[in-house]
Amino acid sequence: MKKLRLSLILVLLSTAFGQYKDLTLEDVFKKSAFKYASLGKWKWLPDQDVYLFFKMDTSINAKSLYSYDLVKGDTTLFISGDKFKFGDYSLGVDDYTIHPKGHKILLATERERIWRHSRKAIYYIFDLITEEIVRLAGGTKLRNVKFSPNGSSLAYLREDNNLYVYQVDSGKEIQLTEDGSFNILNGHFGWVYEEEFSSYDAYRWSPDNKYLAFVREDQTTVKQFPMIDELKTYPEVKYHHYPKVGEDNPVLDIGIINIKTRKTKWLDLSSKEEMYHPRMTWLTPEQGRSGKQELIVTRVNRHQNRMEFVRFNIAKGKGQKFWEDRSEAWVRLTNDVFYLNDGSFITLSERSGYNHIYHFDIDGKLIRQVTKGDWEVSGITDLDEENSIIYFNGKKASVIESRLYSINFGGSDLKLLTKEPGWHRIYFSPSKNYYIDSYSSAKQPLGYELYKSNGIKIRDLSITDIEQFAEYGFRETKFIQVPTSDDGTLLNAMITLPRDFNPNKKYPVVVYGYSGPGSQVVANRMGRGLWDKYMNQEGYITFSIDPRGTGGRGTEFKYLSYKDIGKWVAIDQVEGAKYLKSLPYVDGDRIGIWGWSGGGYMTALCMTVGAPNFKVGVSVAGNYDLKLYDTIWTERYMGLLNENPDGYKNANVLTHVSKLEGKLLIIHGTGDDNVHSQHATQLMDELVKFDKHADFLTYANRNHGIYGGNTTFHLWTRITNYFKENL
Predict the structure, then answer these.
(1) Is 58 exposed, middle or buried (0-12, 13-18, 19+ CB in 10 A)?
(2) To 10 degrees, the CA torsion angle through 171, 173, 174, 178?
(3) What pLDDT band is residue 290 in, cutting at 50, 70 and 90?
(4) Using one digit for the tens of pLDDT, what is the confidence trace for 553-592?
(5) What is the bridge-based pairing of β-strands 616-620 and 663-669?
(6) Does residue 409 sit within a domain?
(7) Residue 398 burial (CB < 10 Å; 0-12/13-18/19+)?
(8) Residue 187 CB coordination number (10 Å)
């Protein structure tokens, strides 16, 4: 409270004397002007209410590993950084994994990004008792490296796309598969599963440590897309498998390989229609229907309007469907499936019209709907089976917030544990007696706090000092609802006024959006960084609105985007522009809009279908023609191409380029593996046909995030100047 009062005093003094301190673009994108709360790269110690974290040790000028005891509140040195050496070579540790029994640590060094989630690195095993260190696989880069449940072995993939097992005590390596290649992937998914299902690790250790269930992905029939490196004297071409809308997907098989015999039992995945298989998990003998360990595979049909759980007997390889979820549009794939000791399971479903928690028996029959109401559960945070308590994040208090709740398995004793409005990300300790709350709001920057599981606060762990912002005079973001002109639907929006706001003046507006199906931009949490604050400082209003078809408000609202994801995007962003024009302090002729990826698509639609409501648009990495995008994401929301040609045509920005008005800047990276720069090239070609003009900026070899070297600063300088020069 004292900090808040002091900050207020500083703001008042600064206002009175006109002495606000200014942000620069260098402050925003090159050097941090502020210090934010952080716990570093932290991880729980197995079965202990203790976490480990890296911190710079000034005494040795290296990062050391420390432990923090939740109960005692003590920080102690766990491993000195000078111990992380292989021979005379000091290891730069990028990540680490703790042995299931806590006496060894797997160190990842020289880590290299593959796609969005996947990484490869050189790995070492560090023994905490003997302080000996062993390098895996002769120093070649590995991916998806994991300990077995008892820690006796490690499994991983070499770059030949084959699975291997390493016996920790003997140091022996065993090759499990032999047909890995550019087309055949064993133990990891290809690009499209990783990007759209967040699935990249495609093998699972059995509970008894004797088997690996793994996916063999055959990409032979998937067409390849060329990525061209034009920074070489003679451009180098690399290919990756990328199934575009309506094209062939990779073919998956799932095998159960016996580690000892190296023999594989292939599961019978036959089905009457094409299915995706994005998830699998083992059940212990106690949880299994047969009294033996079983494998549960989640499968989704290509339309993605039906999801099934299939139980496999690993000896016979036969599966039995025991649970199903259906949708009139698309099903929501979840990782939140908790199998209890009696074989029953708790998961999420939108079958009531809102995402809620359900309890099903071992055969998939409904026991009860645990949470109910016209509000959504964001996700199951953790589960305490011993005390029959489910912890979950939800939007019961507010659609624009995510708070922690607890409820009994029986659906009673619902409690709100996080009292503060805002966005809470929760991490329960191994004992489930404590949790760490990573929390922010529009008023409060990121902080980490420690709580007992009943919601009683113990102490702050790392808090961002808000006094450091006071001298910059940042304006508070206001959350509002904008009624639509057609049927009065209230759309969530947020607005921030210029720092030196004068109600008698008129100001330009910069609108940011994404607007994709089920997405949510308007949220009570720390915003997208400091660029908005910089633009407020420079005299711009910043604004965002979530159109019909976005998330957090139930399926009736969300499914409005189905089969034409662009329809309500354009209509409701225009509704937002109309609202802004109604404000006496807004210059209605100076409204700009921008977005990235799906937001780039949104921007291009607003500058065409939404013309002439926006004077300036900046579209970054937009997917303008959905027929050029991948199968899984696009067909989920648009349906199959042969069943919805009119929807695809209407949602295509190229269909509407003749309507372009205003100044449009199109930005794309030529190394974008996600939304290929082909989108921007074809959009520009279509603009030429209609004698429409746009500015075009490309970044050589940069991926969907468009970063590396000075790229980020260069890009944001261009975006900033584009608005300043044209809006």
Answers:
(1) exposed
(2) 180
(3) confident
(4) 999 999 999 999 999 999 999 999 999 999 999 999 999 9
(5) parallel
(6) no
(7) middle
(8) 28
In-domain check, residue 596: yes
- Give the C-alpha separation, 424 to 440, whole Å: 7
Match 């110690």 to its residue by tokens.
45
Q: What pLDDT does 3 receive?
A: 42
Contact 115, 672 (CB under 8 A): no
pLDDT tens for 397-437 read 999 999 999 999 999 999 999 999 999 999 999 999 999 99
Position 562 in a domain: yes
Sign of the torsion angle spanned by Cα atoms 465, 466, 472, 477? positive
Contact 125, 106 (CB under 8 A): yes
Is 102 a member of any domain?
no
Question: pLDDT tens digits, residue range 603-650?
Answer: 999 999 999 999 999 999 999 999 999 999 999 999 999 999 999 999
Domain CATH code at residue 708: 3.40.50.1820
Tell me the C-alpha distance between 651 and 595, whole Å: 17
* Residue 3 and residue 443 in contact, taking contact as beta carbons nearer than 8 Å: no
The pLDDT of residue 528: 60
Number of domains in the chain: 1
Phi, psi of 596 (to 5 degrees): -125, 140
DSSP structure string for 438-456 = EEE-SSS--EEEEEETTS-
Instruction: Give the domain extent around 520.
Output: 477-726
> Positive or negative CA dihedral for 619, 594, 520, 656?
negative
Q: How many CB atoms lie within 10 A of CB 379?
A: 16
Closest residue by Cα to residue 668 from 628, 629, 701, 708: 701
Per the CB < 8 A criterion, the answer to whether 406 and 390 are in contact is yes
Length in residues, the chain: 727
pLDDT digits (tens, 9 = 90+) for 49-75: 999 999 988 888 888 999 999 999 999
Residue labelled with tokens 């990249």 = 200
Q: In this structure, what DSSP letter does residue 589 have?
A: E
> Which token pair is 533?
């604050």
